Hints:
By secondary structure, the chain is an all-alpha fold.
Amino acid sequence: MSDPHPLVSELTKLSAVERRIVEHFIQRRRVATEPPARKATFGERVADHVASFGGSWSFIGLALATIAAWIAANVAWQKSFDPYPFILLNLVLSCLAGLQAPIIMMSQNRHAARDRADAQHDYDVNTKAELEIVALHAKLDEIRDEKWVALVALQDRQITLLETLLQAGKTGA
């Protein structure tokens, strides 16, 4: 029994993703497909809104205004609900930070997962494009070789005709 073609042994070394891309290439199927749209859950939508608002200048302005109003109210009122070291304010801000951080992390994790999927998709498309370019180069090389052989044959024929004309010219002179 003969050894398998070297290409077969190379194909066995490919990862599953690379084999899938090669199959798409061989079958002339598109790798670039639109991923199925998945509707975000209520929690994901809330996390996205909290992350977008929590990372905005509006939030910073609102937070600074609220803190300034809290401090001003507690300093100006005779019977303040949170006297000078503002322990209640610290508690509220700590709770806000403690709740806001994981919500923002959930949103970032979802965006990171989408970015990874987009990067994998880009890799697949680029790999298939590379295979297509290599195939085009091989076709161009094949066409060039065929044309080169035809050109050499035509040149041989021209040389034969020229030699025939030279022989006819020598015998006729």
